[in-house]
Amino acid sequence: MEKELLFEAKKLSKHFGPTIALDEVDFKVYRGQITGLIGENGSGKSTITSIAAGMQPATSGEMFFKGQAHKPSTMIEGAKAGIGMIVQEQGTVSGISVAQNIFLGEEGRFKRAGLISKRKMNAEARKVLDNIRFYDVNPAAPIDSLNMQDRKLVEIAKVMYGNPEMLVVDETTTALSQAGREIIYDIMRRMRDDNKAVVFISHDLEELIEICDTLTVLRDGKLITTLNKDEMNEDVIKRHMVGREMSEHYYREDYGEKISDEVVLKAESITTGTGMLMDFSMELHKGEILGIGGLSHCGMHELGRALFGEEKILEGKVTDVKTGDKITSPRCALLHGYGYVSKNRDTEALVLTASIKDNILAAGYDKVQKGPFLLPKDAKNYVNKQKDALSIKCASINQDVQYLSGGNKQKVVFGKWVGRDCDILILDCPTRGVDIGVKAAMYDLIDKMRKEGKSIVMISEELTELIGMSDRLLILKDGSLAGEFMRSKELSENDIINVMI
Ligand SMILES: Nc1ncnc2c1ncn2[C@@H]1O[C@H](COP(=O)(O)OP(=O)(O)O)[C@@H](O)[C@H]1O
Ligand SMILES: [Mg+2]
Hints:
The protein is an alpha/beta fold. It has helices at residues 45-53, 75-81, 98-102, 118-131, 148-161, 178-193, 205-211, 234-242, 300-307, 330-335, 345-349, 356-362, 365-368, 376-389, 406-420, 436-451, 463-469, 493-500, and strands at residues 5-16, 19-30, 33-38, 60-65, 68-69, 83-86, 111-112, 115-116, 166-170, 197-201, 214-219, 222-228, 263-272, 280-285, 289-294, 313-320, 325-326, 338-341, 424-428, 455-459, 472-477, 480-486. The structure holds adenosine-5'-diphosphate and magnesium ion.
């Protein structure tokens, strides 16, 4: 059966100053299908869908929806036309209830004699939430009492309340647990069965292959190809995404190298102020990659912060072995040659309103400076070296960091510390949210640092990465050590999961 075209973009382009986010893209969405959209960070996925939804205008090109010219100038207009979008960022409003979030701007519906009937509004909200099968939330509850996932689900309910004919889901599933994902999958499949359409953006190849009917690949703002179900294969997709064969050597490949006996950093019986770590001890050896893993509340992120002097320690101590000094603050850690890549890259690691150059330079002044002088040429070379090593995608190193895509922001954080040439580097989820090409580059850099004799703590939520990169692996559970594994070809995810839960 011929599928009916619902949305079409013709030669759609979007420029942000010198950045070409979309380059004459022709993109089609059919009824009765879930259309997947994939591409490396910064390839233009959010840009094309947000233009369709009316969040921002295109620079040039045309769009058609249900056969009509489509040029929404606000999201409200986009929604009226029939396009709903679940955005990548948090979309609920603080300080009001779940029901008020769902009916924001439509309170008039519940007015009786000039007063808004909360009872009616809550009852209607219940129906809207039931419709997406999100049962265990109270419509009257303050939105701020909900966790991230539940807030996301409220947002989805709100979008679905607009009864869209085309639904855009922009990297929503990453933030959700399996239960939350099932709710979204269910909505998407029902949309398809009702002969409506879904555009589904995700980084999870397995998920895309399972859910989507077709998959469109973007690269550098260009549409590369659209694959049918029978053409979807992880290797093929990756190749289209990065535009070259992915090397087999994704992680390091050596086994059986002996770890040095020399200890460079140790934590002795530390108990943190948050109580996340209790009487915890560990040692980091020279030239090793020490992996740290566990479930979300195991204390691994607090450990990273504690090693860098960022976490309040009630008892015990963290010691820099070479000097015998106690590490008591980030400044102290810096002076001892430590680097730290934080998990919360926006809030902790970057100055968003400063340029890429200034952010990368911030950690490296002492490396670039010649005596009291900082030569502009040296500064530029230093920053450009990091930019190229990590292929940070930007129009200029003078561009503000805030406008970079998530993965490119992470590269800047990484470049900041790697460039500094630290002896001890603490990485908290360094590859979170970055795409495979960049991941491979980061793994290479981490391994290069190891070979240079640097010591690296790599905290991660990805078991394959921990297994692939670590010389030694510590698994935490409820703030204590649950297991220790040495690097081995035989080490499997199952071995680790067994001690983790
Ligand atoms: N508001 C903006 N200002 C400047 N550049 C932007 C803006 N929004 C996106 N970009 C740039 O456009 C490109 C595409 O971004 P985006 O569509 O968010 O990528 P994706 O969603 O595929 O990760 C990136 O290089 C990004 O830095
Ligand atoms: Mg995006």
